[in-house]
Amino acid sequence: MDLQNNGYQYVGNKVDGNPLNEPLEQEINEYPLHRRMRENYRYFGGLSVLYGLVFTFCLYKNLHGVTFPICVGATIGFSVMLLHKIDFKLVKQSVPYMTGMILLGISTAYTSSSFFHFFNIFGIILLFCVFMIRQFYNDHTWNLPGYLERIIILMGTTAECLQYPIRHGISHW
Question: What φ, ψ does residue 29 adopt, rounded to 5°?
């Protein structure tokens, strides 16, 4: 199931006014978001490589060290930059999610308990998923099962879209 075509109301602020759930007429079966990512392949690819280097620097052989909060902050920063490139403005209610992620990252660096490491990382992933979902959908009437459903859809869509960087890279070169 695709996030852009799952029947939920889209509330983004696109410049061209074309909602994500309608494919472009000239490019059948390609959503505008995918088209923008393909057209800006160098930007997205370059940021992905840079994020990979930051991730490796922060977490190589030290998954729960003092650089863990830096990696969490970099994840938030790169996400905001990618959202900006596809013409999405950050939703005002995103600050508590980002703050929670940073605080859990700091907590992870300050503890040596594997139990807390696991649940802090799980909490960061959940907050990040909800943070990203809030950027694309009007979620004011959702309840906990609604969020869980969308998080599962997001995970499935992410797995489904792993092919796109390779396909876009091949078509770019």
Answer: 70, 20
Spatial CB neighbours of 155, under 8 Å, sequence gap ≥ 6: 129
- Return the number of other C-beta atoms located less than 10 Å from residue 32's C-beta: 20
- Structure tokens given for 7: 């029947």
Helices (H), 60-143: 68-85, 95-110, 114-136
Domain ranges across the chain: 3-172
Query: What digits encode the pLDDT tens for the residues 100-151?
Result: 999 999 999 999 999 999 999 999 999 998 898 888 887 778 888 888 888 8
Question: What is d(CA 115, CA 113) in angstroms, rounded to the nearest whole number?
Answer: 5
pTM of the complete model: 0.74
Q: What angle do CA 97, 135, 105 make, to 5 degrees?
A: 25
**Amino acid identity, residue 95?**
V
CB atoms within 10 A of CB 8: 19
Residue-wise pLDDT tens digits, 55-87: 999 999 888 889 999 999 999 999 999 988 888
